[in-house]
Specification:
Layout (H helix, E strand, L loop, with lengths): L2 H6 L7 E3 L3 H13 L9 E6 L3 H4 L5 E4 L2 H17 L13 E3 L7
Length: about 110
């Protein structure tokens, strides 16, 4: 049984699903479509990553876009700094992200 199948068979099924990744959201949307749900109307989906498939799959998946290049750059910079330092940086860093709204949320 898939995760989406489990959720949709609950006594009170959800009206929206926020998946940990776009690939999982797309898989769940595929299941929902096969069962006749109208994505963006009966059931809303949100992914996380903004991978290329998120806007190729129909209906187009709404998602959270992460600054992947900036994340990798920051991690490497901090790693190099920590390797050179006697006092490692244990700070928490937050990078900007954005919502990309498409068909799967009715947008």
């Amino acid at each position: 049984m898939t995760g989406c199948e489990y959720l949709m068979n609950l006594p009170s099924p959800p009206t929206a699903i926020f998946a940990i990744s776009d690939m999982i959201a797309i898989g769940a949307m595929n299941y929902a479509l096969s069962k006749g749900y109208r994505i963006g109307k009966d059931l809303i989906f949100m992914g996380f990553d903004n991978i290329a498939y998120s806007h190729m799959f129909v209906p187009h998946l709404s998602t959270v876009e992460q600054p992947c290049y900036a994340q990798g750059k920051l991690v490497i910079e901090k790693l190099i700094e920590n390797m050179k330092s006697d006092n490692p940086d244990h700070s928490l860093y937050t990078l900007s992200h954005s919502l990309v709204l498409r068909d799967s949320t009715g947008d």
